[in-house]
Amino acid sequence: MKDLKALTICGAGVGTSALLKMNIDKAFSQLNLPFRVDVENAGLSRAKTISADVIFTFETFEYDSGEFNAPVIIIKNLMDMQEITGKIHTFLSENNLLKE
User: How far apart are CA 76 and CA 79, in angstroms?
Assistant: First the structure.
């Protein structure tokens, strides 16, 4: 597989999306995947112009998620590593991206 591009989104692309990016990076790094994962953070308006394989955002922006051309994963608690890791694992499993 080619590299996976993930995008974290919040209103301005500075605060919560940057914190979420750090935790998404950490969760992906623990999975020992056979491809590289690049995680970028952005504000809502800029995110609509960035191509990604998967998008992570919050319930606040769920309404806008239909405007993205990638699967959107809603994170309820950006500090809950169990939630983040679980949702990443589910996404990878559903897309046949996990090593057997």
Answer: 9
CA dist 72 to 11, 32, 86, 99, Å?
15, 22, 14, 22
Has residue 42 got a pLDDT over 80?
A: yes
Question: Is residue 13 situated within a structural domain?
Answer: yes
How many domains are there within the chain? 1
Res 43 pLDDT > 70: yes
Whether 99 is covered by a domain: the verdict is: no
Question: What is the C-alpha to C-alpha distance for residues 85 and 65, in angstroms, rounded to an integer?
Answer: 21
Residues of the domain holding 8: 4-94
Q: Each residue of 61-91: pLDDT tens digit?
A: 777 767 778 899 999 998 999 999 999 999 9
